[in-house]
Amino acid sequence: MPHxxxxxxxxxxxxxxxxxxxxTSMIYFYFIPKGKSNxxxxxxxxxxxxx
Length: 51
Hints:
transmembrane helix, mitochondrion, ATPase subunit 8, membrane
């Protein structure tokens, strides 16, 4: 049992990191360009996913 603990911990940690990265990327690429859309002239946030 103790040998399986580090593997499950790394898998859970990687899943948590992926979730955090997805949430931060959604915030950076979806919410922030909406505020800059007035200056950049891009009303659609989907166009910013090409970065």
